[in-house]
Write a structure and sequence with these properties.
The complex is a heterodimer. By secondary structure, chain A is an all-beta fold. Chain A contains no helices and 12 strands. Chain A starts with a strand and ends with a strand. Chain B is built from no helices and 11 strands. In chain B, the strands form 2 sheets. In chain B, strands 2, 4, 5, 6, 9, 10 and 11 form a 7-stranded mixed sheet that branches. In chain B, strand 7 and strand 8 form a beta hairpin. Chain B is globular and about 40 Å long. Classes of the chains: A mainly beta, B mainly beta. Chains A and B meet through strand 5, strand 6, strand 10 and strand 11 of A and strand 4, strand 5, strand 9 and strand 10 of B.
């Protein structure tokens, strides 16, 4: 069975500082990996996804993530955060064959301080 | 174009009552998913439709939960004999056919069972 661990429940960073949100997954083959963002009262919005190929994936809003098979990780990064980045971030894994459901982590809440 | 819509946005009911939650997917998306998000948790998979049929209902917690998609578009999630533990945000997503395709989420229905 697939699973996702987001070890950081809450992270606080200063505006303009760099950001890294951690995600570790468990899956028997090469997975599909996703990062979604959820703002208060909003639906989940896809930031980026990894299927295959280049392990460094670029997404919207200046985010990127790197797939590291050896570490079973898919960490999300941004070089300089903006106050509008404050939200809940979810990492998710999908099977590369068979069922199509996504398995989400418990999320990381990001707070930005001026 | 229009995204995934869900109605109602909020639903308050009493323990033991029956509720229906509706999802309108993005036009042309053949795959439709229901997830449930409890407070402080990531979304948890409930059921996946491919067209009119439920391709995977392994996430439905018990037989009080049922979902239909009779014409391959709109879907209704039905909960019988609601319990306080059913209180959560119910999310719907849709995608084009295929594993790993991006799932586009609706804003959710917040269900509160008193």
């Amino acid at each position: 069975a697939q699973s996702v661990t987001q070890p950081d429940i809450h992270i606080t960073v200063s505006e303009g500082a760099s950001l890294e949100l951690r995600c570790n997954y468990s899956y028997g083959a090469t997975p599909y990996l996703f990062w979604y963002v959820q703002s208060p009262g909003q639906g989940l919005q896809l930031l980026l996804k990894y299927f295959s190929g280049d392990t460094l994936v670029q997404g919207i809003k200046g985010f990127e993530a790197e797939f590291k098979r050896s570490q079973s990780s898919f960490n999300l990064r941004k070089p300089s955060v903006h106050w509008s980045d404050a939200a809940e971030y979810f990492c998710a894994v999908g099977a590369s064959f068979g069922n199509e459901k996504l398995t989400f982590g418990t999320g990381t809440r990001l707070t930005i301080i001026p | 174009g229009a995204g995934v819509s869900q109605t109602p946005s909020n639903k308050v009911t009493e323990k033991g009552k029956y509720v229906e939650l509706r999802c309108d997917p993005i036009s042309g998306h053949t795959a439709l998913y229901w997830y449930r998000q409890s407070l402080g948790q990531g979304p948890e998979f409930l059921i996946y439709f491919q067209g009119t049929g439920a391709a995977d209902d392994s996430g439905l917690p018990n037989d009080r939960f049922f979902a239909v998609r009779p014409e391959g578009s709109v879907s209704t999630l039905k909960i019988q004999r609601t319990e306080r533990g059913d209180s959560a945000v119910y999310l719907c997503a849709s995608s084009v056919q295929g594993a790993g395709e991006t799932q586009y989420f609706g804003p959710g229905t917040r269900l509160l069972v008193l």
